[in-house]
């Protein structure tokens, strides 16, 4: 029987199970193929841990958050960490991974993930593995695609949270800061901020000034609005300052998440104005739970398209969403690239037009 492999890599998000289900149903129904599911992203490939996905295993998972296969945002066949004699070192185990793909006689390996996953997939493709990428991330920062699945759910969760914080901000006459994820990109903060009517949205693409934030809070106060809503992207940084997340710490192969930039902003506002501030860091709540209908739909469309590409032997491409269609783009155009919010984005214009300060 012909086979196709699938793994879910990087940080999880809503819609992963919808993709696993979509791939399995399409492979079995339309192409009479077997689906090899690797556990915990590339770690399963490295450690030879996999299963054959059956209809029973994927039945009823469309609406479930997380991934039944598990994920890992640390595993990398080209830099696999091993501990020996209390010491950790990185070894390249990619040849073994390639050999496993050959042994399993898979037509292709479908890698579902963000830029880290696409970068590894592209390197594997150069070693002869047929790969297909599927774009997943709440950050929406993958190149070549208008949207990634997982984003809409995170945007919905963040918007609802900001709405709730709005009412308590009003009651207590406070400046409320809500920190959202997004890594080095401001998509999530900007879109949730506009949707929830935030007064200020701070994104990594536009360095913020405390003076401007305080100016907005004071102006609102003069006009009788005794509270302000500030949405802070976790990667936001002050003018002339550096980001506090995803900085590469010396001697560590991993970007270390330091986070909590909004605490620093809140402290500065309180010290300079005496206005009471409160901070809410939404964190992983944005990644969990049931996917929105849009994410279920996107994930299913991506899955079906991936299987079509397998059938057409259109390998080493990522399925992208462009102008309402699912289209293949060469994976090397995606690997190692990040899509930040362009400064001429209509979203930035929209925010400013309705009086939202971008710091
Ligand atoms: O890339 C997805 C993401 O949720 C980012 O928004 C966030 O910075 C990061 O992953 C958090 O990673 P972890 O789950 O390892 O803390």
TrEMBL record:
Pathway(s) served: Carbohydrate degradation; glycolysis; D-glyceraldehyde 3-phosphate and glycerone phosphate from D-glucose: step 3/4
Chain coiled-coil ranges: none
Active site: 139
Domain Phosphofructokinase: 3-310
GO MF term (any one): AMP binding
Domain of life: Bacteria
Keyword field: ATP-binding, Cytoplasm, Glycolysis, Kinase, Magnesium, Metal-binding, Nucleotide-binding, Transferase
Compartments, record wording: Cytoplasm
Catalytically driven reaction(s): beta-D-fructose 6-phosphate + ATP = beta-D-fructose 1,6-bisphosphate + ADP + H(+)
Cofactor names: Mg(2+)
Residues that coordinate or bind substrate: 137-139, 174, 181-183, 234, 278, 284-287
EC numbers: 2.7.1.11
GO CC terms, sorted: 6-phosphofructokinase complex
Name of the featured protein: ATP-dependent 6-phosphofructokinase
Natural source organism: Syntrophobacter fumaroxidans (strain DSM 10017 / MPOB)
Originating gene: pfkA
């Amino acid at each position: 029987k012909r086979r196709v492999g699938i793994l879910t890599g990087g940080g999880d998000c809503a819609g992963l199970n919808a993709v696993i289900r979509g791939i399995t149903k399409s492979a079995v129904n339309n192409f009479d193929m077997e689906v090899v599911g690797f556990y915990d992203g590339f770690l399963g490939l490295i450690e030879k841990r996999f299963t054959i996905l059956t209809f029973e295993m994927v039945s009823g998972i469309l609406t479930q958050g997380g991934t039944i296969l598990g994920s890992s945002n640390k595993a990398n066949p080209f830099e696999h960490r091993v501990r020996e004699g209390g010491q950790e070192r990185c070894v390249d185990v990619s040849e073994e991974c390639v050999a496993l793909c050959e042994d399993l006689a898979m037509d292709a390996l479908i890698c579902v993930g963000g830029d880290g996953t696409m970068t590894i997939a592209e390197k594997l493709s150069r070693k002869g593995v047929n790969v297909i990428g599927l774009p997943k991330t709440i950050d929406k920062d993958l190149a070549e695609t208008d949207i990634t699945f997982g984003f809409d759910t995170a945007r919905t969760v963040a918007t609802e949270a900001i709405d709730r914080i709005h009412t308590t901000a009003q009651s207590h006459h406070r400046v409320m800061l809500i920190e959202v994820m997004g890594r080095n990109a401001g998509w999530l903060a900007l879109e949730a901020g506009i949707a929830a009517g935030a007064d200020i949205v701070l994104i990594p693409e536009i360095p913020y000034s405390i003076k401007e934030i305080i100016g907005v809070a004071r102006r609102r106060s003069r006009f009788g609005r005794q509270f302000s809503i500030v949405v802070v992207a976790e990667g936001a940084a002050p003018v002339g300052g550096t980001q506090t997340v995803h900085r590469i710490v010396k001697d560590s192969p991993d970007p270390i998440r330091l986070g909590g930039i909004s605490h620093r902003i809140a402290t500065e506002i309180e010290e300079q104005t005496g206005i009471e501030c409160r901070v809410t860091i939404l964190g992983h709540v944005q990644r969990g739970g049931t996917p929105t209908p849009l994410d279920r739909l996107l994930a299913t469309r991506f899955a079906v398209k991936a299987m079509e590409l397998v059938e057409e032997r259109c390998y080493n491409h990522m399925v992208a969403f462009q102008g309402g269609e699912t289209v293949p783009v060469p994976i090397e155009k995606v690997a190692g690239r990040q899509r930040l919010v362009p400064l001429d984005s209509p979203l930035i214009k929209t925010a400013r037009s309705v009086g939202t300060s971008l710091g």
